[in-house]
Amino acid sequence: MAMSLNEITGNGPSRLDPPKNPPQSLRVSSDGHLDSIEQDPAFTAKSVNGKPIGIPLCAITTSRGFRADSSISTPRNKKRRHARSFDELGFVAASDNDELEDIQFLLSDDENEGRSDGKSSGPMLAIFRPWVVKSLKSSHARPTIRNLKEVLDIQSKTPIHELGWFIDAELIDNFYQWIVELHSFDPETPLAKDMKAAGVTSVVLEIRFGKDYPHSPPFVRVIRPRFLPFTQGGGGHVTAGGAMCMELLTNSGWSAVSSIESVLLQVRMAMMNPEPKPARLESQQKSIQRDYGIWEAIDAYKRACAQHGWQVPPDFGDFANNGGDSRILM
């Protein structure tokens, strides 16, 4: 048995024009009652006269068809059901002409569905680096990340003997703390001769960045080998604690536009500079090469700033707490 919607509501005109499209058929149960959808009593659909209006079952045929299809137990449907549900996505308006596959496309999680990348589809493995969250607390790390990419790019394009410095990315597990090796010094300099005698091939530096970088300078210190102190005839702008004694690396001489590449170049040149005195190693014996500690470097830096009247960066206290002492295997 088929009935028109106007016959149900009883609000139609006395004479009906022939419909352009045949009316949809409504299923009626054997007892003569129209199959309708149970509504929420608090939100029942009503007519303009305030009377409740029943919602025929066919009104949500498309929606139920989608739900029925989604209930089929397939790996793809299981993934989609875990990822998001119909209720979580909210109401999706669909016209009477919408096909089932159109609705599935609207609710699809994969915008590139159907495209092949030539690789077999396997389980997704999470790529997780626990330290990233700790070292990237805020946007403070962005300048150091950018600088690291820049210097590594320069390093990859420049012959190592011409560059004079080397950064092993595997030794950097914190963007605020870098390990750098200076090498290939002028063989005629006292420092290069001492290094050759001691069997040392590079000077290992540590660079630490504070929260105010690049508006405040990084802290640059030598880790190994130990240099001869100024009081014993040493030089090369290396303090007794291993910190670099350079106005460039204080608030008095630092510029926010300075690049790390230029800093490394100037530090390397300062070590080879014979004025006021050339840098020398504390010991030329291969078996006696010691490291500098972070605390003696911090104290030496403060003393050098006080002696020359240079301004200590306001975030200098961060350097002592940024990752603890350096531990490298070389």
UniProtKB/TrEMBL annotation:
Region (Disordered): 1-34
One Pfam family named in its UniProt record: UQ_con
PROSITE patterns referenced in this protein's UniProt entry, alphabetically: UBC_2 (PS50127)
Protein name from the UniProt record: Putative Ubiquitin-conjugating enzyme E2 Q2
SUPFAM superfamilies the UniProt entry points to: UBC-like
Domain UBC core residues, every copy: 142-311
Organism: Glarea lozoyensis (strain ATCC 74030 / MF5533)
Signal peptide: none
Polar residues: compositionally biased ranges: 1-12
